[in-house]
Amino acid sequence: MFLSRVSRIYYTLSRSLSPVHGMAWTLLVLAATLLLPGKACAGHTGYIFVSHEQSNDIAVIDPQQDYRIIKWIRTSHRPRELRFRKDHQQILVACEEDDVIDVVDVATLQVADHIPTGPHPVMFALSQDEDFIYVPDKARSTIDKISVTDKLIEREIPTGADPEAIIAGSDGKTLYVTSAVNHMVHVVDLEAAAVTDNIQVGTHPARLLAPPGSHGLWVSNQLSGELSIVDRSTKLVSGTLDLHLPHAPPGRPTPVGMTTTHDGATVVVALGQANAVAFIDARTLEIEDYSRAGLFPWAVAFSADDRLLYVLNRSSDDLTIVDMLDHGAVRSVAVGPKPYALLVDE
């Protein structure tokens, strides 16, 4: 309706204006149409997305509007992990209680589709070509290979008991998945659809991280309070970092979420019960600093320029914003009850 009115006005005025003024009017109309609601290019908006497993929604936070929540996206029940597709046009959301992965359109900030999964999806990984989603199935101790196009489970790959965190290897041929009860990381050959190696790590491995430019696979071990660094080329643990240090903040560290700067030089780990995050030199494996956060920091993510660190606090229902220059907390932003996952549209 609005566009048709603009077209009619443009037609009337362009006939009465001189060529120079007509060109100026054309440019003005083009600029106006680009600013129409819902017509903006999706992706790389700078928005921060936070899933809430109790209220079944995702908060959309705009840093350019003083970190105001500009939208609540209704989802299926109990949204957990959030992950972008490569072009940042869509967000995939694991919704545990409805056994689906919701597909959120970033342009409209609405759920546009659903992909059925096995029971209780929590975390997942995308294939390199994004044609398949790999979802750990705790009930059957498998990884389900799901076609994005057909929305069907094409294959079930057996794993150890209680598969949880999962990450795809950069070679496009390998998956890494944790077994929370066996305290190990399984290496899965996708062509063979089988586990080829079992790597013993700490107690209750919770998350996996592969920093760019590194052969290391970082494992946060929630109950033993340590990190295991696995050499992906040898499939061996090349280093272990104990987070129980004398100068650490009070409280037992229960590391969960991890992230890395874009150059892979610094890894940040959320320390859970210690109510802090740790900054680690990825090359030397030395803890460089700690920063206080809210209650039970659970997930971490960087801004696009690595100048700010966002810390999602699971028990205080807020987001701590940390300045990377001095590792000091700048402010805290309420995000709503029972937050689970954090995603930044860089």
Automatic annotation (TrEMBL):
SUPFAM superfamilies in alphabetical order: Nitrous oxide reductase, N-terminal domain
Name this polypeptide is given: YNCE-like beta-propeller domain-containing protein
Keywords, comma-separated and alphabetical: Signal
Organism: Rhodopila globiformis
YNCE-like beta-propeller domain ranges (all copies): 48-206
